[in-house]
Each structure stands twice: as structure tokens, then as C-alpha cells.
Amino acid sequence: MFSVFSVGALRLIVGLLIALWHHSVLATAALNITDNRFETSGITSGIAYLRDATGRLTLEDAHADLSWIELENGIPYLGYDTAAHWLRFRLINSTQEPVDGMLEIAYPSLDSISVFHVTGTAPGSEIVLSQYVLGDTLPFSERPISNRHFVTPVPLQAQSQTIIYLRIQSENTLIVPLRFWTREAFYQIGQRNLIGQGLYFGVLLVMVLYNLFIYVSVRHRSYLYYAGAVAAVGLFMAALQGIGFQYLWPDLPWINNRILILSVAIYGVCAAAFTLSLLYLKSKSPPHYRMVRAVAWLFIMVGGSVFVVAYEYAVIFAGVVCILSAVSGVLAGRATLRKGQIQARYLILANITILISGLIFIANKSGIMSLNWLTANILPVGFMFLVVLFSFALADRINQERRQKFAARNQALRNEQRAHDEHERFLRAQYEAKVEELNANRKLHEQRADSRAKSEFLATMSHE
Is residue 146 assigned to a domain? Predict the structure, then answer.
């Protein structure tokens, strides 16, 4: 009897310890809404984490597991890891009014997300209020809220709490920026953000169309390469920010990850061709011409790698080649700037800008730098500077060509005037020589006439 009592007591104690452990973890994980004017808040603290190496844990398994680890404050960053990961946190509504809430995961490159809204803290007492399955490997139409980010409704009753479980698995970097909104604030602020996105992509589209129009008019290949590079930038940013999946290929989830790498490859090839054409590298600097051509071939390999190697390795390969591209652009620009190609100064600045932006972006994706306003916006801002600087370089080259043509035209006019003056001097010299010859002939004729007259006079006098 003692042994039975001991076993029962032990089970009771273990159960109480588990319940207390769950309660202690969740007690620190609450986002507590205490103001009826609440609109939005980032969720950066009180988040517990569980790694599921097998990928087989169910919600019940995860709920009962004792291996949960509370994350440090900040945006959850889990690195490159194809294993499944569970996150857990609690939302509390302490007000007397219900909250029509929305949970946003502001990172559109996650492959698979399961969202569970649960009540109850003790194992076996949980009740699943709602469940959603999202991810960029699913058609966009299956999302509960049409948004470029992953958004699910989370209604909170007055004086209530909800536990959120997230199961996330992806081939991309596992960054999970979490934010809780009221529905009204979400759509109001989202509308302003959408206007900003529209302006950004509108500028890129205008630059593409404008330079294509100029190319059709003047048939200068630099305009075509520039338009291709800008179009690739727009495609990359649309895929990275989820705009492309929402508006361009919503029913093609298989292309969503590949388009990131493919757009990088297209940009790299077009940027290399633009550099070759802009700087006259083939004639001005053959070694740098060969270097930039080699980088272009590497970008072609980047485009093919997304179909033959794991996505993680394709991303690493693309990142390395992008760094090589920026460095080669700086070196080629420096070499040709010394030879009088003043448009190279803009190309150097553009490549330095995108190199710094890219390194910060890579540092963020690698976990070296945390996700913040700078790391979230450095790449689109850097790309916009690149687009503008490339445009300045192209305009500078065209102006330089015009100046050269104007100088050549002036030189031709000066040469023509010089030739005309020489011809006039020649004609004047010929005229003067002819006049002198005529004068000489006239004098000779006069002398002969005088001599003849004298001879006749002497002959007449002698005869008399």
C-alpha cells in the first residue's frame, strides 16, 4: 500500500511540477493589454522555444514537453535550420472590452507555419480555439487574411487570455518578427505602408519603361542593360517583401523561393553588361573586362544552382557572387576613372553602396545583426541609391559623348576653316604670282617695244 501511495504521490508531484513549470514559463510570456486605446505592439519578450529535430511533434506533444527554453528579449532568430521549431507565448486582455486582434508574422519567406490559439496551461487541459496553416509553399488564396505577411485573426474576449503556439519550418533563415494588432489599426497603418510600397515599385517601373523607350529610340545597349538591372531589382524586392506572391504569382508557390535567386542572377548579368558597356572596358582595360565577364558567368551559374542544389547553398553561392560583383565593379571603375572615364565615379559609388547594404543584409540573415529598422530597410534603400547612381552614370556618359561629339564638330569646323583659309591663301598667292607674271610680261613687252623702236629709229637715222 505504501508503494502504491508512493507511486501515486510521485505522479501527483510530477504533474504539479509540470503544471507549475508551464505556468511559470507562461507567466513571463504575456503581452498584457490594459488600455482600451491599444492599437499595436511588437512581441519581443516572454517567448518560449522548442526545437523539434524529427518534425513529428504534435501540439499535445509540444504542450507537454519539458524542453522549452525562454528566448532572450528581441525578435526570435533561429538561423538556417530545416528542423521544425515551436514558439509559445501568451496574450492577455485585461480590459473590459473584447479585442478584435490580428497576429502578424512580418517575414514573408517562411515555408510552413502552423498557428494554434489555445486556452489552458496544464497538460491535457488545453482547448484549441482556432488553427491556421500558412507558408510561402501554399497558394496565396489559402491565407485567412490577404496580406504579404502572414496574418491570422486572434480575437481576445474581455478579461481573458490566449496562448499562441507557432510551429515553423523553412529552408530560409528562420526570423520570426511578431506583432499584435487591433484589426482597425492593422488596416489603417497597412494602407499607409501599401502606399509607400506602391511609390517604391512605381519609381522602379517608371525607370524601366523610360529607359526601354530611350533604347528603342537610340538603340544604345546601355539603356537596355540598365532597364534589365532595374527590373531585376524590382523583381527581387517584390519576392523578398511578399508583394510578388500577393499580386504577381499567387497561385505559383513553387516559384516563390526560386525567383529570389533567379532575380539576383538576372540583376548580376545585366549589371555586368551595363558595366562593360558604360566603361568601354574591352578597349580601356582588358584585364577588368575579363574579370567582369567572369562575374557575369558566375551569375549565370547562380541562376542554375537554384534547380540543382539545396536552397541554403544556392543562397550562400549567390551572396558570395554578389560580393565579388560589387568588388569587381569598384575595381573596374577605379581603373577606368584614371583613364578619363568620369562616369566611373558614379559606378564606384553605386557598387560601394550595394556592397555595404548587402553585407548588412547578410549579417542580419546570419544572426550577426538583429532585425531593426536599419537592417529591415537597408537593402531597398541601397537598391534605390544604386538605381539613381546607375542613372547618373549613364547620363554622365551620354553627356560626355555629346561633349566629345561637340568638340569633334568644333574641331572639324576649325579644320575646315583652316583648310579654307589655306586655300584662300593659295589662291591669293596664285593670283599674286599671276599678276607678277603679267606685270613681268608687260614690262618685258614694253622693253622689247622700246628696244624695237630704238632700233628702228637708229636704222632710220643711219639710212638718212
Answer: yes
Domain boundary among 154, 185, 216: 185
CB 48 within 8 A of CB 68: yes
- Whole domain around residue 116: which residue ranges? 18-185
Residue 72 clears pLDDT 80, i.e. is over it: yes
Residue from 106, 133, 346, 75 nearest 222 by CA = 346
126 neighbors 119 (Cβ within 8 angstroms) = yes
User: Are 186 and 198 within 8 A, CB to CB?
Assistant: no
Are 327 and 463 within one domain? yes
> Pick from 142, 162, 185: which residue ends a domain?
185
Please say if the pLDDT value at position 446 is more than 80: no
Distance (Å, whole) CA 397 – CA 385 = 18
The length of the chain, given as a count of residues = 464
pTM, two decimals, is: 0.82
pLDDT digits (tens, 9 = 90+) for 80-120: 888 999 999 999 999 999 999 999 999 999 999 999 999 86
The dihedrals phi and psi of 131, each to the nearest 5 degrees, come to: -145, 140
How far is it, in rounded angstroms, from Cα 249 to Cα 246?
Answer: 7
- Is 185 within 8 Å of 200 (Cβ atoms)? no
Domain count, the chain: 2
